[in-house]
Amino acid sequence: MSRLIEKPIPVSDGHYMLKVEIGSPLPLPGQFVSIRVSEGSEPLLRRPFSIFNHEGGVASLIVKVVGTGTELLSRRGPGAIDLIGPLGSGFTIARDKKIFIAGGGVGNAPLYFLARALSESHCDVTYLYGARSEKYIYLENQFRRNAGHFILATDDGSSGTKGSVADIAAQILPGGQYDMIYTCGPAAMMEKITSLAGETPVEVSVENYFGCSIGLCSGCTIETSGGMKRACVDGPVFKGGDIRWKSMPD
Ligand SMILES: Cc1cc2nc3c(=O)[nH]c(=O)nc-3n(C[C@H](O)[C@H](O)[C@H](O)COP(=O)(O)OP(=O)(O)OC[C@H]3O[C@@H](n4cnc5c(N)ncnc54)[C@H](O)[C@@H]3O)c2cc1C
Ligand code: FES
User: Does 216 sit in the ligand 2 pocket, CB within 6 Å?
Assistant: First the structure.
């Protein structure tokens, strides 16, 4: 059994950081954990969360409260927690490359651990961090530390540049000066970034609905150029160009 080492820490409006002790194997950036959020029987299904960071055997997660499960999690006290993981595939960790990372809202969560690994492997990282509004920005300074160039954007202009991640990426990407692009956020945003990338490889992390998180229920199946794939075991990281975006839920 894993252990929540302290009470969830508020990091922005409706967003909490959870620190959990997890055993081996060591997680890779892009992998996730699946948590039984309640000590009772409701909700029955586990909930998936990306690994935000991992240091000294402790994984941190960012949880945005959207419904019953995340609300229950945000109010958990320290102690035993029923968690499985790390699960799924991780991002490719490039070396000595010029990188563009774009995250939208809670989609920034898996990209912190990624940006950290890329900067440790001597990549030059440009990070575009998008949020709907200033009050939803979490841990900005931590994100800044892993990026040679950091761009903050909010939809309403309350902090950083006014505009959506997709619109700002549209001003930056056509130059084509990056070796690799990574993104996580709403499907429409990831589709747009994939289309703007041209020949540059793109890796996306999809966050569609998961049932079991371990490949048994097919609830997370998405359409790709290689056929139907279960996002929990074949992903959640995919090549952006392989996804049939029209079939993805919003
Ligand atoms: C691989 C993966 C990684 C994820 N990483 C994170 C993360 O790091 N941090 C985080 O806060 N969330 C993350 N999510 C989303 C998170 O799992 C859901 O928000 C959570 O399961 C909702 O549970 P709930 O009981 O609070 O909401 P529910 O009561 O089940 O639903 C409440 C509302 O949220 C919507 N919703 C529920 N799940 C999703 C989803 N997967 N995508 C879009 N809308 C949804 C429902 O349609 C409903 O409107 C991730 C999802 C996946 C698949
Ligand atoms: S969530 Fe059950 S197979 Fe992926």
Answer: yes
Give the CATH number of domain 206-250; options: 3.40.50, 2.60.40, 3.30.420, 2.10.240: 2.10.240
The string of DSSP codes covering 93-138 is --SS-EEEEEEEGGGGHHHHHHHHHHHHTT-EEEEEEEESSGGG--
Query: pLDDT tens digit string along 80-119?
Result: 999 999 999 999 999 999 999 999 999 999 999 999 999 9
Q: Is the CB of 42 under 6 A from ligand 1?
A: no
Cβ of 112 less than 6 Å from ligand 1: no
pLDDT digit string (tens) for 133-163?
A: 999 999 999 999 999 999 999 999 999 999 9
CA of 199 to the centre of ligand 2 (A): 31
CATH class of 91-204: alpha beta
